[in-house]
Every structure is written in structure tokens, then in C-alpha cells.
């Protein structure tokens, strides 16, 4: 059962009560040598990529991806489970490392809160994890905005490149949720102070193509090559204009030369954690870096990594984009679910921030679980489509009843899960995940025939159709005129053979966040189809997607402060 005494502590209080090891000791336990570790104080470091060359002949450990049912405002505890599984694997004698994305500070100061896990299964120091860390997001922002400045400089200096001002797609970025910057005009003030006035805007930093590019790079040289392929707009003749054309890719690589190195931290039980890159799962690839996984797999028996949002989002992109580029094959997956979230997927309940939860969410309600279970069943199917064994982890809350927990386990096992276990890692740390660890070890030992959902050499529309029907359950795909023209342009450039990264809401299997559970019979609308030639994928836009979040009426920033001793207060 949940230890109610322990859980009175906030995540920040728990983090500060952990007896931390010097990060050099964590690195040593991973098998890294002194020259491969670059210290950022006592409790965080960067790992030099020379470690990969030294360890290239070592066998890889097991590769585990943690995903979830479609998320709800209640939170499912995917990161908590990822961290807790890493802790539990170490407790049963398996050497494990946890690989996570670095969180954006936009949601941290907005409504989502932190991304370090929680309770007794989190990455520490959690305030450093959730804030600047080692500055990678800032490096991405500067490199991105340098290219934006070069674009306007070319326009003002009347370059011979003939860049069509109306085709420029490269905006600026900042790691703050600021809706006022979504649409702006630059170039005001005449030729001396501005340049050529034009409409543009800001995206949040982690939505930058450079963040996804960084996460999918295989080496420093590969990153440099990818940067050169970034398309910022087109000439009036329709030819792409790249960062290489603008003579900027080299300088951008210089700004990212340290950001390509994974960050090393530790858990509440001193388990190593590699924290690297932070693309959002609804608008980008939603996974931490390939390089961090390469290093983790050479150092340990198990790498436990996490994909953003539900299995139809981050896990699908993990399988079909990240694994395709990395050449790595996953051994098993964990699918996180909660009683409360499955009740929400019944469509009977609405959660309003700041108001008490409906009693139906906190009291036994087997009928609501049965109605919402379609989402769990579909997400199990989505993982199994890739021929990967999946274990369902039911993240336990105090209000859950034994009947409810047993019902979810029964549904999961009946619909193809290798196992279904109760997880209590939030309240008990690794001890609360022992059954989950044993289940995932057993699943990972089974041979699997991992496969991609689609080949690259079919058309863009065929690839989108496969994702829409098989992953999302759509009956058809409808393309707006702009999307049709975009597809023609991409084909003309010879880039149709890239993988697909659909941008859509994370709150539904469909494009509509109001369609809960397992929606069927709907048509997936594609508004436009963009190209991330540097990162190496095509991203169709399904429904209304924002690349710059806004702040809520009562943002988390109101509660955050610093005391007279320099300690951060009010951070979760």
C-alpha cells in the first residue's frame, strides 16, 4: 500500500533529502573514464563522445521503451514509471540506466509542472533537471536564432539568392510559453534599424527543427551534415534555400558542439540517468537522443527510455523514426495506465483545473473503466503492431480499489499484453516496481521480430494512410489544398522517401482532443505537410496544432521564488 507518511513531502522536499553521490562516482559505476566526463558542478556532467569510440566493440544491453495510454489532464505517471523501473531493475541485480528528455521551461513555468518524475522515483537535483541544466536548450535557441538573423540580413543586403520573402518558414524560438509572440512583424524601423518588414513569429525552443535534429544525430559530423540540409524557404523559382546556402551551418554546429554531448545525472536511488534533447511528442519526435541511447546501451544491462505522450505518438515515432535512424532494435515496451485516466476515457467526466475531481473518478466505478478501456486496448495493439512485447504498468493511486486494478489487469492480459502489474514506484521507489522489473526482464528475453510500420519507398500519402488507419483508427484521410501542393513540392525535391512524423493533439487517438477512448469512423484532416530536411522527416499537420504554448490564468510561475539562503521554493 501507499506510504501516506512519505507522500506528505513535496517532490522538491524529497529531492533535497536524497543522499547524492558525486557525479564522478556515478560515471565510474557506468564504466566511464575520467577523460570522458566533463563536470558541471558536483551533481551533473556531460559525457564526451569519445566514450562511444572506446566502447564500440562492447555488446549492447537490453533496450526498453516506456510509453502510455492517451494522456489526460490527470497525469498518468509515465516518467515516474520510467525512473522507477530503472531503480527496480538495479534492485533485482540488473545494471540499468534511465534515458530521458530535458524538459522545456515553458511547461515548467506554465501548467504542466516538472518532468523529473516524482515522489521517490525522480531525477535529482530536480530543480536543476527542470531548469537550465547545462544550457542545451539555450544553445539550440541561439543556433536557431542565428540562422533567423542571417535570413533577415540576406534580405536587407539585397542578396543575389532571390529568396522569396513569402516562402520563409524559419521563425525564431524562445523557451518560454508566450502566445503574444506567435505572430509578429520584423524589419520595422527603416533600412538602418530594421530591414524588410515581413510577418513571422516565435515557436517554443523545443519545437525547433534543431532540437529534433540533435536528437537524431549519430555523431558530431552527422549533426554538421544535417544542419546544412535545413530548409528555411524557397527561391522564386521554387528551389529550396538551406542553411548551407546561407553559409550558416558551420557556425550553428559550433554553437551546438557541447549540446550534442549527453548530460549525466542520478535518481533518488543513485541510478545513472542520461538527460539529452527535448523535442515535443505531439509536434516532433518526442524522444531523447540516439547518442544517449548508444552510450547507455554500451554501459549497462538495460536502458530504460521514455517516449512522449501515448503509444500512438512518441512510441510510434520511437519505432519508425528513431530506431530507423539509429539501427537499434527495442526488446520490450512498458505501457503505463491509471484507473482515473481510463475512467476519463469513458467520456463521462471532465476535469477542470482548480476544482475538485468528480466523485466518479475517485470512487469505485467499474463501468467507467470498461467504457474507457478501448484506449488501453488500442494502445496495446499499437505497440504489438511493431512485433514488440508489451507489459502494462498500472500506476497506483490511493483512491484505486482492488476490483478496479484487477479489472484493468484482466483487460490488458486478454488483449495481448505479456503481463500486467501494479506499480507503486511513486510512493516506494524501486521497491514499488519489483514486479514490473521482473515482468520486463522476462518480456525482454523473448525473441521478437521488430518491424517498421511502413517502408520508406512508398508515397507520402500511402505512409500517412497507414499511420492514420492502423495507429489512430481513422477511416480515411482528407487533404486540404495546401497539403496537396506541399506533397507535390516535397516530391519534386526528391524527399518523399523520408519517414513521417505526424503532428496532432496528444489528448486523443484522433486529431480532435474531445474524442476520448477509442474513436472510430472519423476522417483525419491534413492541413499542410512540412519538411524537416535537416532532421530527416516529413511532418503532416493534422488538426489545429500550436508550436508556441500560452500560459494559463494561474501559471506555476506565481508560486516559484528564492529564499534568503538561495534555495528555490514553490517548485512542485
How would you describe this structure to a colleague?
This protein is of the alpha/beta class and 572 residues long. It folds into three domains: 6-134 and 259-445, P-loop containing nucleotide triphosphate hydrolases (Rossmann fold, 3-Layer(aba) Sandwich), CATH 3.40.50; 137-253, Domain 2, N(10)-formyltetrahydrofolate synthetase; 460-542, Roll (Formyltetrahydrofolate synthetase, domain 3), CATH 3.10.410. Helices cover 35% and strands 17% of the residues. It is built from 21 helices and 23 strands. Strands 1, 2, 3, 4, 5, 6, 13, 14, 15, 16, 17 and 18 form a twelve-stranded mixed β-sheet that branches. It has a three-stranded mixed β-sheet with strand order 19-20-21. A hairpin with a 2-residue loop joins strand 5 and strand 6. Helix 13 runs parallel beside helix 16. The longest helix has 21 residues, at 136-156.
What is the name of the CATH topology of the largest domain? Rossmann fold
Average per-residue pLDDT, rounded, comes to 94
Stretches where pLDDT falls below 50 for ≥5 residues? 1-7
Radius of gyration: 23 Å
How many structural units, i.e. domains? 3
Beta-strand portion reads 15-25%
What is the annotated CATH architecture of the largest domain? 3-Layer(aba) Sandwich
**Main sheet makeup:** 12 strands, mixed
Note the total helix count.
21
What is the strand tally?
Answer: 23
User: Helix proportion of residues, in percent?
Assistant: 25-40%
Category from helices, strands and their pairing: alpha/beta
Distance between the ends? 23 Å
The CATH class of the largest domain? Alpha Beta
Backbone shape: globular
Query: What is the CATH H-level superfamily of the largest domain?
Result: P-loop containing nucleotide triphosphate hydrolases
